[in-house]
Input
Amino acid sequence: MKQTKGVLISQQTLRKAAKKAKLFYSSSPLTTVAILANLRDAHQVLRDFQKQHIELREDFLESLAEARALHFRPTLGTDPDKLEKATEKEVRRIQRNERSRRSHKSVRRCLRPQEVKNGLAKIDVPMNPSADPKSWDGPWKTITEPEEIAMKVCQANAEQYHQAWKTPFAEEPLLSYIGRAGSGPGSEAILQCIMPPENILKHLLPETRSILQTLAQIPTQSTLAVEETQITQEKFQALYKKSP
Output
């Protein structure tokens, strides 16, 4: 990503980074779209692993403890029972050290709060303010000012929350016919299995017409059988009786 922004990075550095991450190294640079797609895939894999972090951590500790036990006492490899006991002991030792490290970290945060860094330190945005970051293939700009970061994040959130703003039911002519809250004159007509007039349908996409046809085919509440709403004690108790 840095290379696509014009930052000079040697091929040796890229080769080492790829080897460390166990990735295939290619001397030909990727496009920004490909890089963003790979990053999204990597984030998804990370989220999947985070859901299993407890099981993965236990497996890692057990493997690490067994490796340490065999390193200090190679003869344990011939005795499975002794190896299992040594592994359990090593796991407890590692867990004890981790608890101690977490405690020291908490104390350090209390004594030196100025060293604790939370929140976003920087964000990358397209040089073109009106461009879509998902498909942008041009140069990028790094923002580090907290006020500007907050403004960009709020702007991105607003765009995400308004994704349904330009859907067919939120635009004319359906917006005035059905209403933003479903309280327009067309809502009652659709509930009565009546399609919108042709002067509205001719402006709609086939998919939108199909949705309206499906809605108009659903029977209204007035056509459904009216059930007795009063529940007696006998009816309530009958729900718990086993059927023969």
About this structure: The longest helix spans residues 80-111. Confidence is low (pLDDT under 50) at residues 221-226.
